[in-house]
Write a structure and sequence with these properties.
The protein is of the alpha+beta class. It is built from nine helices and twelve strands. The protein has helices at 11-21, 64-71, 82-88, 93-97, 130-174, 183-193, 236-243, 254-260, 265-269, and strands at residues 26-33, 38-46, 57-59, 75-77, 102-110, 113-122, 198-204, 210-218, 229-231, 247-249, 274-282, 285-294. Helix 5 packs antiparallel against helix 6 (183-193).
């Protein structure tokens, strides 16, 4: 691991080495997002568990990772009944159903901060003992720094890509003589940064009580075509304009939409389930909004 520049290139070799020390049926490396209280599966090998693939993001709550993160120590769990699993670590239920009988999680700690967990699982209830716990923490200590560095590298790469895309948008608009000529290209660029099923640019009238659809692309919604003017009251855009801040809305039911944004019922009915928007501000004045919406 100390010589690794791309973790994806060596994870399989790492798993091969670990299994010689800690025989397992499944191994996972989970990365913690402490702020969002979730974990992402950065790598797994062995037994396939539905809904637990690489890249899967899960709430930290109810997981063995949570126990390892909170205690900052190796956690060993050897359940004998499904009720015990569901009572203590509900997230382990699917693995138990597939025959897993021993679970062990070790915290990945860098500079006194827990950044994730290393987990091994086995169908053999006696696979892990006290010595195995010591080994698991030693392995976790060896690889934690490299995983943190690789994480930072990936974050830098993502930031650099985002900055490059934003620069492309800036160049596009600065060279435009007619906005109508570049909106489609603008939408194409934005979609590489924020995937969407519909994008809308709304411009406010002088008293900021109405908004005109200056441009839209993607899923069509009746009554919200280009050039259409609608009252701002009861819309998602109204909150963005008043707060002068970006906002996100993930409704799960039509009643929730009608309660918060009565004018957005048609959007939910069209199948859009996620909304994100930001104010357009010029000379310290909000002149409109840009919104992206998705069916996911």
């Amino acid at each position: 691991f100390s010589s690794a520049s791309q973790l994806s290139d060596i994870y399989d070799e790492f798993a091969h080495v670990v299994i010689q020390l800690l025989p397992f049926d499944r191994i996972t490396v989970n990365v913690l997002d402490a702020e969002e209280e979730n974990i992402t599966i950065a790598y797994h090998s062995g037994l396939h568990i539905e809904g637990r693939q690489q890249g899967t993001v899960m709430p930290l709550s109810g997981t063995l990772s949570e126990a390892a993160v909170r205690s900052r120590a190796v956690v060993l769990f050897k359940p004998t009944e499904a009720d015990e699993v569901h009572r203590r670590y509900p997230a382990l239920g699917s693995g138990f159903e597939q025959g897993v009988r021993a679970y062990m999680a070790a915290p990945l700690i860098v500079n006194d901060e827990v950044i994730g967990t290393l987990q091994v699982r086995s169908a053999d209830a006696d696979a892990f003992n006290e010595h195995a716990q010591t080994l698991a923490q030693s392995i976790a200590n060896q690889v934690a720094g490299t995983i943190a560095n690789a994480q930072l590298y990936e974050e830098i790469q993502v930031t650099a890509r985002e900055m490059a895309i934003l620069a492309d948008i800036g160049r596009l608009f600065s060279s435009a003589t007619q906005l109508s000529d570049i909106y489609d290209e603008f939408a194409h660029i934005v979609k590489t940064l924020v995937p969407f099923d519909r994008i809308v640019v709304n411009l406010l009238d002088a008293d900021k009580k109405n908004g005109r659809v200056a441009f839209h692309s993607g899923l069509k919604i009746e009554g919200w075509d280009q050039g259409t003017t609608n009252p701002m009251s009861g819309l998602f855009a109204e909150e963005i304009v008043q707060s002068r801040r970006a906002a996100i809305f993930h409704p799960t039911a039509l009643d929730e939409v009608k309660e918060r944004y009565p004018g957005m019922g048609v959007t939910y009915a069209a199948g859009l389930r996620s909304m994100i928007g930001a104010p357009l501000i010029a000379n310290d004045e909000v002149i409109g909004t840009i919104q992206m919406r998705s069916v996911a």
